[in-house]
Each structure stands twice: as C-alpha cells, then as structure tokens.
Amino acid sequence: MDGIVVLISGRGSNLAAICKNGLASQIKCVISNKAAALGLNIAKEYNIPTEVIDHKLYNDRTEFDQALAKIIDKHNPKLVVLAGFMRILSPYFVKHYLNRLINIHPSLLPSFVGINAQEQAISEKVKVSGATVHFVTEQLDHGPIIAQGVVKILPNDTPDILSQRILEIEHTIYPFAISKILKNHTKIIDQKYVEVIYDENDNSILGKYQSQIYY
Ligand code: GAR
User: Fold this and answer.
1) Whole-angstrom Cα Rg for the chain
2) Which of 81, 91, 107, 188 is the right S-S partner for 112, CB 3.0 to 4.6 Å?
3) Positions of CATH 3.40.50.170 in the chain
4) Which ligand 1 atom is at minimum distance from the Cα of 170?
5) Which residues contact 90 (CB under 8 A, 6 or more apart)?
6) Ligand 1 center to residue 85 CA distance, Å?
7) Is 175 near ligand 1, meaning CB less than 6 Å away?
8) Looking at 75, 96, 105, 134, which residue is catalytic?
9) Superfamily of the domain at 105-215
10) pLDDT tens digits along 121-143
11) For the segment 103-117, what is each residue's pLDDT rounded down to a tens digit?
C-alpha cells in the first residue's frame, strides 16, 4: 500500500493545498460523488486521475460505499483522505478503512460536529474555533485527533468570514497531517488518540501558523 486517494464533493481548496504542498505525486486518484465538483479541475491540472461516482444511482448508503470502495481499492492506497466529501459514511466503509481514513472538519472537535460548524461556533459565542484533522470512526466527526489549528473569533465575524480564516489554517494543517502519516510519524493509541512524532522540519512546514497548530 502506498500513496493516497482523495474524496471530494465540491470546490476542492483542501485538495489544491495538498497538491501545492508537495503531495501531488502521492495522489493516485481523486474521486467525487458530484460530476460538477470544481475540485476535479484541480486534479486535472496536476494530471491526477479522476473518477466520478454518483451516489444517487445507488439504492442505499452501503451499496454506494461498496462501489466507492471498489474504485478506491484498485489504487491500494495507504491513506484515504476526505477533503470536503459531503457524505455520511456507512459502518461498512469506516470498518473497511479503519486507521487508513482521515477527515478535516472546520471546528475544534469534539465541539460543533455536523454541518455549519462555523455558524455554530459564532452563535455559541466561543472565543476560539479552528480546524481538526482526525481518523474517522463510526461516530460522525469523532475519532482520534491528529492535529488541530486554532483561530480566534473576532467581534464582527460572520460564518463566511470565519470560514475563510479557518480554511487558511486547514490548508496548512491537512498537508502537514497527511505527510506525517505517510512518513509513519503517527501512532494511534488504544483507538483513542494519536501520538505524532516531532521532527525538526515540522515548524518550517507549519510556517506562519506554527503557533496556532497543535499536535
Ligand atoms: C472545508 O472547510 C472542510 O473542513 C469542510 O468542508 C470544506 C471543504 O472545502 N468539511 C466538513 O465540513 C466535513 N464535516 P474544500 O472543498 O474547499 O476543501
């Protein structure tokens, strides 16, 4: 097993960040459940193979997930990366990729799971929010946390403005977490938390966000 397969549903700004941060050659395929997903164009720019699999053509979630897994498994990836893949995954899929499936979510989990995480953070009047990269388990937006990036919430933030600032940090934290996993610099303990092995390049990769990212 080597490399990654990335699953998207939309614009693919995280996919673009993963490519820009030196990981394009590790991506074996980008798969979307929507033919119109803009992220597919990003994959094409990098000459990465793409596939579209429309969930509406399947009777139920498990049937779709089985078909999706068949496509992914052709590439035998070390890691499956959810990058704005807006589908709830079946227990079948999560078990099939246990410890090989990661997600990014725009909040400091376990706070604000599900959709509109940025809006939830603003309406709860929390002082900070951010982004979390985690291994996927059967519970929605839960699972061993690999890294988190913190963003301060400002008085005039709207969900859109906050989303934009969180996205900037997502674009650093996701490539960082993926490269740590590909380098075998992560270890899942008791299926509960992740030990990330520090190396001296970490801070230069995290760049201007190094004081906001925790792992
Ligand atoms: C990102 O903000 C990501 O955190 C979020 O969708 C956006 C995708 O943007 N994912 C979730 O909310 C998953 N629960 P992108 O398509 O530009 O990468």
Assistant:
1) 17
2) 107
3) 1-97, 105-215
4) 4
5) 61, 62, 65
6) 7
7) no
8) 105
9) Formyl transferase, N-terminal domain (3.40.50.170)
10) 999 999 999 999 999 999 999 99
11) 999 999 999 999 999
Torsion of CA 150, 205, 164, 138, to 10 degrees: -70
CA separation for the pair 72, 19 (Å, rounded)? 19
User: Is residue 84 in contact with ligand 1, taking CB distance under 6 Å?
Assistant: yes
Q: HSE of 109 in the Cβ direction (CA atoms, 13 Å)?
A: 24
Q: Which residues pair with 187 in a beta bridge?
A: 195
Place of tokens 């900070």: 128
- Which homologous superfamily does the CATH classification assign to the domain defined by 1-97? Formyl transferase, N-terminal domain (3.40.50.170)
Say which residues have a Cβ less than 8 Å from residue 58's Cβ, sequence separation at least 6: 64, 67
Q: From the CA of 105, how far away is ligand 1's center (Å)? A: 6
CB 194 within 8 Å of CB 188: yes
d(CA 49, CA 58): 23
Report which residue type is found at 125: K
| pLDDT for 165 | 98
CA of 83 to the centre of ligand 1 (A): 6
H or E element in which residue 121 lies:
helix 117-123
